[in-house]
TrEMBL record:
Gene3D superfamilies hit by this protein: Glycoside hydrolase family 3 C-terminal domain, Glycoside hydrolase, family 3, N-terminal domain, Immunoglobulins
Name of this chain's protein: Beta-glucosidase
SUPFAM superfamilies the UniProt entry points to: (Trans)glycosidases, Beta-D-glucan exohydrolase, C-terminal domain
Keyword Signal among record annotations: yes
Organism expressing this protein natively: Rouxiella silvae
Domain of life: Bacteria
PANTHER family: BETA-GLUCOSIDASE
Top-level taxonomy: Bacteria, Pseudomonadati, Pseudomonadota, Gammaproteobacteria, Enterobacterales
Record carries keyword Transport: no
Keywords: Carbohydrate metabolism, Glycosidase, Hydrolase, Signal
InterPro entries documented for this protein: Cellulose_deg_GH3, Fn3-like, GH, Glyco_hydro_3_AS, Glyco_hydro_3_C, Glyco_hydro_3_C_sf, Glyco_hydro_3_N, Glyco_hydro_3_N_sf
Domain Fibronectin type III-like: 690-759
Family (UniProt): Belongs to the glycosyl hydrolase 3 family.
Entries under Pfam families matching the protein: Fn3-like (PF14310), Glyco_hydro_3 (PF00933), Glyco_hydro_3_C (PF01915)
Signal peptide: 1-20
């Protein structure tokens, strides 16, 4: 599909993005002063005049260091001007050794060095889904800033991050890497993260360039099955899935990684509509596009290229500048040019983008821009002193979501005897989550260590593993297929449960740390069953039978189905994979040294069969009404409608009240604004933070619009008894949407406004758009 006729509408949306309400104006490459742009263009055109065809093709080569591509070979290739960029090498020593080769090359064009720094480099922060659960822009910015500083301090120039794919399917393993289901929240976080990585200058020695991924729509793979097809209406695509990528570009992201999936039948890697019409022509992106790992060769398997050679031609012509890892460009571009199947312009345009990115990274000022002098190289790359533990703990605390707290069983008192049980209670590797970059598992704090540190000798802490992650050998072997990520206790399940029960019986309270191992929520880790594995549920059953108060600490990278766990437990704390300082942060919350304030960035279903289930759904002609249930309404008859825990949900150790909504007017004129405000009060006994959320509904429009769509939020901190007015401002442009002709406009009529502390318990008001 090539809807060129829709272009003007697309431009309109993204010149005034939906998330713009609280976002500063865009700063793109076009903001670079004219003289600098001119200097860059002049430099690049002079350089390109000196380059042979081989030199140019070399610049399009993004190589991964690994057994099939040893360092010595890459160093020889750098000397021969055959390498544009390198990834998967992460120490200053190794990068410097490679960069030293540049001086022996003819052209002396330095490669750049990239890595997947998704939620931290040496210090690992909570997984991105957890960061989103903080709804705290300053915490997320802090984590990204430290990531950038540590990444730059390792001599790297670029991170393959943020990952901003909207996803509404928790079966997909990569939900852990993104910011969840919501367009507005993800767009805000995308913008914030890129700004924190790059500042206004990715070349600054302690900044790195962001490479936003995966363009586009990777999070919408059918059935949540990894690498699967995406087929989507244009209105949904542009209303819901595209804005986060655009937000990252508005923040100045220098790179874009192209998705592995197809979009309406055309693989992203050969999709010139996506990569040229939208990305370049409409969004005015001037940076670098890179393929995903081996994606060019994948075009043959997608069934759109007959062979690798044709695939290389298709990718280049579609607008993929660099070829990641499969060297298809290196092998085929020369011959393709000779045979007239690609043009010199196709090659030059890609080379131009690579050189632009290198200029923007400061590599032409010095190949050692981020490396600095040799004297700055750390003696010990993994030295404790290179970590930012304090910040990691502070950020991790903001990401924890209290899902249940019956009779205020939490916070626990630091006295008596506590039994800590579960296969994740003392797992350093799992605390780090997937894509934990250069983080060292041995440096992470487990829940056991965190609780020990919090308790000292004030209380007795007993520990038993209780179960393995899974007793299913097929799953265990899968999780260990690339590295030994999951360890198995050789005892029988019953022996482990018996020990756990004996331990629990000695305690006043049981804290069970259960969920997924980190490898269960990552790339290539889709699940059809999103329960806690059976082995751990058997353990929970036995713990429940002891009659002791049962607190579940959940570690997982996706929404899980937790109805049974919700029934049998007294409290549940969602902790994601919380990173290097996770155990301390979790202990802070368990013992009330920090009051939880996280809110779910994704809906938690009751049953896997409800998927997709998400907040901003459209209405049907026969909506289900829980107050007046009727057979012929939109529902499943075997499971209650609605999620177990809705989007935006999360409890606190205090209580908050929200007043009715005050609107500044009952009508909104095309050029005016309307203010919706509420008073929020801490009615409980301890200080705490909550997230005030604003949702909208366009009651009657030319196409069905979401029943409730997030359009604003503010995290507020209140002392006991304190109250605060929270005000949201809405303008006509905030009410626009794309119809199926991609016309971006609002329509006069009634709009509902909802404000609450989650997406379901809300106050409601309405106004008319004139
Ligand atoms: C992933 C990307 C990642 C790349 C490089 C791919 O398999 O899809 O997200 O950036 O590998 O590590």
């Amino acid at each position: 599909m090539k809807p060129h006729y829709l272009i003007s509408a697309v431009v309109l949306l993204f010149s005034s993005p939906l998330y713009a309400q609280n976002v500063p104006p865009a700063s793109t490459n076009s903001d670079i002063p004219q003289s600098q742009t001119q200097a860059r263009e002049l430099f690049i055109s002079n350089l390109m005049k000196k380059m042979t065809l081989d030199d140019k093709i070399g610049q399009l080569n993004l190589v991964s260091v690994g057994p099939e591509n040893p360092r010595e070979q890459i160093m020889a290739d750098i000397r021969a001007d055959k390498v544009g960029g390198v990834f998967n090498t992460v120490t200053k020593h190794d990068i410097r050794q490679m960069q030293d080769q540049v001086q022996y090359s003819r052209l002396k064009i330095p490669p750049f060095y990239a890595y997947d720094v998704v939620h931290g480099q040496r210090t690992v922060f909570p997984i991105s889904l957890g960061l989103a659960a903080s709804w705290d822009m300053s915490a997320v910015a802090l984590s990204a800033r430290i990531s950038a500083e540590e990444t730059a301090a390792d001599g790297l120039n670029m991170t393959f991050s943020p990952m901003v794919d909207i996803t509404r399917d928790p079966r997909w393993g990569r939900v852990s890497e993104g910011f969840g289901e919501d367009t507005y929240l993800t767009s805000r976080l995308a913008y914030e993260t890129v700004k924190a990585y790059q500042g206004n200058d990715p070349s600054a020695p302690n900044n790195v360039m962001a490479n936003v991924k995966h363009f586009a729509l990777y999070g919408a793979v059918e059935g949540g099955r990894e690498y699967n097809t995406v087929d989507m209406s244009l209105s949904r695509m542009f209303n819901d899935y595209m804005p986060p990528y655009k937000a990252a570009l508005d923040a100045g992201a220098g790179g874009v990684m192209v998705a592995l999936n197809s979009v309406n039948g055309v693989p992203a890697t050969s999709n010139s509509w996506l990569l040229k019409d939208i990305l370049r022509d409409q969004w005015k992106f001037h940076g670098l596009t890179v393929s995903d790992h081996g994606a060019i060769g994948g075009l043959v398997k997608h069934g759109v290229a007959e062979n690798d050679r044709q695939a290389a031609a298709m990718a280049l012509k579609a607008g993929v500048d660099m070829d990641m890892a499969d060297n298809m460009y290196g092998k085929y571009l020369k011959g393709l040019l000779k045979d007239g199947l690609i043009s010199q312009k196709d090659i030059d345009s890609a080379v131009h983008d690579v050189l632009t990115a290198k200029w923007d990274m400061g590599l032409f000022v010095s190949p050692y821009r981020h490396l600095g002098p040799v004297s700055s190289d750390p003696v010990d790359t993994n030295a404790e002193s290179r970590l930012h533990r304090k910040e990691a703990r502070e950020v991790a605390r903001t990401t924890l979501v209290l899902l249940k707290n019956e009779n205020q069983i939490l916070p626990l008192q630091k006295k008596g005897t506590i039994a800590l049980i579960g296969p994740l209670a003392d797992s350093q590797r799992d605390m780090m989550g997937s894509w934990s970059a250069a983080g060292v598992a041995k440096q992470s704090i487990t829940v056991l260590k965190g609780m020990q540190d919090a308790l000292g000798d004030k209380a007795t802490l007993l520990y038993a593993r209780g179960a393995n992650i899974t007793n299913d050998k097929t799953i265990y072997d899968f999780l260990n297929s690339y590295d030994k990520a999951v360890t198995n206790d050789p005892r029988t399940p019953q022996q482990m449960i018996d020990e756990a029960v004996k331990t629990a019986e000695k305690a006043d309270t049981v804290v069970a740390v259960v969920g997924e191992s980190q490898g269960m929520s990552s790339e290539a880790s889709s699940r059809t069953d999103i329960n806690i594995p059976e082995a751990q549920r058997e353990l929970l059953k036995a713990l429940k039978a002891t009659g002791k108060p049962l607190v579940l600490v959940l570690m997982n990278g996706r929404p899980l189905t937790l109805s049974w766990e919700n029934d049998i437990s007294n409290a549940m704390l969602e902790t994601w994979f919380s990173g290097t300082e996770g155990g301390h942060a979790i202990a802070d919350v368990l013992f009330g040294d920090y009051n939880p304030s996280g809110k779910l960035p994704m809906t938690f279903p009751r049953d896997v069969g409800q998927i997709p289930i998400y907040n901003s759904m459209l209405n049907t002609g026969r909506p289900f009404n829980p107050q007046k249930p009727d057979k012929y309404t939109s529902r499943y008859f075997d499971t209650p409608n609605g999620p177990l825990f809705p989007f935006g949900y999360g409890l606190s150790y205090t209580q908050f009240s929200v007043s009715d909504i005050t609107l500044s007017a009952t009508t909104l004129a095309a050029k005016g604004d309307i203010k919706a405000s509420v008073m929020v009060k801490n009615t409980g006994k301890v200080a705490g933070a909550t997230v005030v959320q604003l949702y909208m509904q366009d009651v009657t429009a030319s196409i069905s619009r979401p029943v409730k769509e997030l359009r604003g939020f503010e995290k507020v901190y209140l002392r006991p008894g304190e109250e605060k007015r929270v005000t949201f401002s809405l303008e006509e442009k905030d009410l626009r949407y794309f119809d199926n002709q991609l016309k971006w406009a609002s329509q006069p009529g009634k709009f509902n406004v909802f404000v609450g502390l989650d997406s379901q318990n809300v106050k409601q008001s309405s106004f008319q758009l004139q």
